[in-house]
């Protein structure tokens, strides 16, 4: 997992639980001396461990934390990728073009980066279906990002997200996003 995700998780936890929460989490997960650099790659299991620790501390499910975290990081994602997002785009447009713009740029700038593969099909003007494929099984993070994007565009109450989890062992799932 890319270090920038760990940096965003640290920012998220400080926002939600205060300035000492990150160090406390690292300690409880056996990572007390760990420093995450944004451009480095770290074991996926460390992220899963940290997310699980947050979930336990907040008495929420891992999926709930991933979704909330996904919504949280959208503001920074828009800052990073603002030059790739056309001004006339709205939620469904951003989703439709994520793989060929932002994810393509990520893979080009760092050959070791492995964002999820998104096959986005624009069913019609009001619906995008995403085949979300990743060995990490973090599609709830993607659902949170979708909800954060819709909030960014003031469409949160207009967007319906249906998440069809992958079966055990499968790395792909479907996410349907509809403008209602």
From TrEMBL:
InterPro entries: H-NOX_domain_sf, Heme_NO-bd, NO_sig/Golgi_transp_ligand-bd. Residues 2-160 form the Heme NO-binding domain. GO terms for molecular function: heme binding. It comes from the Bacteria. Pfam families: HNOB. This is Heme NO-binding domain-containing protein.
